[in-house]
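Hey, can you fold this one?
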Amino acid sequence: MKMDMNKLLADMQKMQKQVQERIREIEQELSSESVIGSAGGGLVEIELNGHRELKRVSVKPEALEDASENIENLEDLIYAALNSALAQAGELHERKMSEATGGMDLGGLMGDLPHGLG
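Sure. Predicted structure:
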């Protein structure tokens, strides 16, 4: 059975366009989804969207009371909350992108992807 290369290429291009469109949709979804990293039992919370952009920082008054004597503790809480939020946002991003590609690593087959996907 002879393989029709033109049809195969056309099918691959169609699939590429479908995946790229789904990735664009996911990029929009990631803008509206958020994750919250916290530290110190919720004394410090940092909220990021799915693009790892900062949406909110919350510091409870109790954390500030301790900071008047030891600022390093507050800095450590902020650091821990940010790292937690970044890890969650990264997992969210990876999970969403995996949905778009069906878990396949398409490497260079996707051509120019929207900003932020590299």
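The radius of gyration is 21 Å. Let me know if you want another pass with a different chain boundary.
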